[in-house]
Amino acid sequence: MPHNTIPAHVLLVDDQPANLLALEAVLDTLGVNMVRAVSGPEALEAVARQDFAAILLDVRMPGMDGFEVAREIRARARSRFTPILFVTAGDDPDDAMLSAYALGAVDFLAKPLRAEILKAKVAVFVELYRSKEELRLRERRDFEQRLEAKEERYRALFESIDEGFCVLRLVRDEQGNVRDYRFEEANEAFTMHTGIKDAVGKSIRELAPGHEGHWFQIYDRVARTGEATRFVEEAKVMKRWFDVYASRLGGAGSDLVAVLFSDITQRLLAEQDLRRLNDELAQANRRKTEFLATLAHELRNPLAPLSNGLHLMRMGASKPELLEKTRQMMERQIQHMVHLVDDLLDVARISTGKVELRRQRIDLKEVVATAVETSASLIESGHHKLHVELPSQPLPMDADPTRIAQVVSNLLNNAAKYTPEAGRITLKVRVEGNEAVLSVTDTGVGIDAEALSKVFEMFAQVPSSAAKPQGGLGIGLSLVQSLVALHGGTVSASSEGVSKGSTFTVRLPLAGAEAGGADDRSATPAASSGQLQVMVVDDNADAAESLGVLLDIEGHAAYIAHTGAEALQIAQEHALDVVFLDIGLPDMSGYDVARRLRMLPALQQTLLVALTGWGTQDDRQRTREAGFDRHLTKPAELPAVEELLRAAALAKRAG
């Protein structure tokens, strides 16, 4: 604002209107607003209403003279420093002048007044007033600009922080208890962290009815004590967890609380998942350790009787009864080891999704009979009584008979292991709709409620002091569940508690009537007793020699090689019908040997059989690519070997 445009006011106080008119005429050219007052009280009212650049005050006035008016003006804060010029027409101006200056007057003018002098003096005070007003206005503008800049910085910071921020005003009841709070301010992140929109001006009770009372207690304590606090709390109504920092705004008695907070719900959920995964990993590691210890124990157990059996056979060579008894014992132990290895291979195949089902039309009753026969020795060794209930009608099913028999046998073995001696085991099969329902119930140690949900987990074994498990790796029930699922069925476990026995129930889909009866495929008849030329290639001398002895007993010509070079030499000297070839040879891999054998004209039609400890689908694919016809996992079972020999004999005879 230009200097000369700043408004200035001059107060003229005189009880004579003519004198007031004369003063106005003298000061008219100064460009000021002149205010008249004809008495002391009227002058004081004008001073209370507004500020003046100067006051021209007559000394002699009726009722309240100029000195009394000046004294009141100086007593008021607003007008304490307003310039006062006394005007008098008295006979003793010196005494009046002293009194005027004693009251803080800036000048004393005696009548008659000289217009130029009066105008010049008033102009000085007007100019001084305008300068002060200009400076005050400039300072105010600077202050407002600084305040506006600070406000902009505060607002930018307020809106830029990722955390939610709000200012709450606590709402108290008549007793002073906090019953609600209203949002005075909230940044943009507030909505992101709370899910609440347009919160400013509204209370939490309006926005989230049912908000928990402990939030009010916390903010009340912050407002009363002035102590800032940080806490983590759940807002159940919002279904969120918050990390909150709250502090009071203002001094004692203020009900304003500033709150900085973050929604940590996802973080807490992630931490819970991490803890759960850590617990699961720890449990899996513990089970792995227990499994390895159990596996070492189970594989070691047959070694002692096998070693003892060999010693007995050497000592009792002349005692046929001893040799037969020892042989039977050794066969049992070897079958036990084979069963353990088969279970491990099944676990690997199922875990990688590479198990192959050989489905055919079967009668479930026949498969159950086979499984009962398989488990009979274990049941009898525990002196248990087995009761079997089967329906009279056939139970047709499209399934892998070996795998279904494995399911039933595993359930029977599990019942026998976990049932104290002389217990009772019941196997029932019934038909419900299009399903066959097979249940195995025992009077064994039972399963408590906590362990019941874990019995089908890998390597899980039911802990109990009532009966000691008779070996096993804790994978039988897991295999049952997986094999049943592969057949489109389900398995479940139930128990009334510890020492109250348990029941395992399997549900399997039956085949439709339109699918036909039993499998039309007949077993391949045994080949006529024609001699085959067979080569066994294995760097394990015992394995190669034992298979060679078996071939001799079957009436075939057997050739033994322990390296790839030996195998290739024999292949060039003899026309071979079958080659059992180990993959892991000392001088070259079985894959390389197979490829080189296929390059020999005489071995184009020879049956190449891979012998390996690896049995995954990838391993089988690799052997096929190397030129093998069949793939057998070690230890090769005798029925599988005999089947291959029969097939080769038939092919040779047909050729």
UniProtKB/TrEMBL annotation:
A Pfam family annotated for this UniProt entry: HisKA
Residue ranges of coiled coil: 267-294
Positions of post-translational 4-aspartylphosphate modification: 58, 582
Keyword Phosphoprotein assigned: yes
Catalysed reactions, semicolon-separated: ATP + protein L-histidine = ADP + protein N-phospho-L-histidine
InterPro entries membership: CheY-like_superfamily, HATPase_C_sf, HATPase_dom, His_kinase_dom, HisK_dim/P_dom, HisK_dim/P_sf, PAS, PAS-like_dom_sf
Top-level EC class as recorded in UniProt: transferase
Residue stretches making up the Histidine kinase domain: 294-512
UniProt KW keywords: Coiled coil, Kinase, Phosphoprotein, Transferase
EC number annotated for this UniProt entry: 2.7.13.3
Residue ranges annotated for the Response regulatory domain, each copy included: 9-126, 533-649
Record CDD domains: HATPase_EvgS-ArcB-TorS-like, HisKA, REC_2_DhkD-like
Name the UniProt record assigns to this protein: histidine kinase
Native source organism of the sequence: Ramlibacter alkalitolerans
